[in-house]
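Researcher: Please predict.
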Amino acid sequence: ASLLLSGSRSSKTFKPKKNIPEGSHQYELLKHAEATLGSGNLRQAVMLPDGEDLNEWIAVNTVDFFNQINMLYGTITEFCTESSCPVMSAGPRYEYHWADGTNIKKPIKCSAPKYIDYLMTWVQDQLDDETLFPSKIGVPFPKNFMSVAKTILKRLFRVYAHIYHQHFDSVMRLQEEAHLNTSFKHFIFFVQEFSLIDRRELAPLHELIEKLGSKDR
């Protein structure tokens, strides 16, 4: 069964995967990130490699987290429906309303699948914008890059939070929990290392974050 699963996992993303061009410096950075992850020390793996540009490191990892969440959510989309998840929530105390500031200025209440569709499409548009995420060498990152990256990561966190609160039983049935936990732990260590998400925003998964952190000190 595990073979079948890994096969379906790689092909089933929610949105098209965002590829970093091979042969580019960012691709090298991604390969470096993957290699250090393999060492098992996640705290070390998220640190900025010597001599590298912080913006570029954050850009490469943001693309990678988008792809990971894309895949994780892709495995459970059939369980996340208008009827099962009429609102976008992370447990009973946290509900999210969607606004992107351009197309939808006033936050709207919508179902989780609709919200996540808006969210992932919005992230995709940011990642595809060469002025925000330049893939060409020597093209500088814009001045507002860090604030854009923070907004992307803050929103991607909400997809993890929704999966953990509303769909963890499905994740376990699919034997994906180790994959989800590793991905989320990597994500949290990364945003903690560079203070990218406000603590208040992380509240829906506060206990889990505490637990992940305490095992690793």
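Model: The mean pLDDT is 90.
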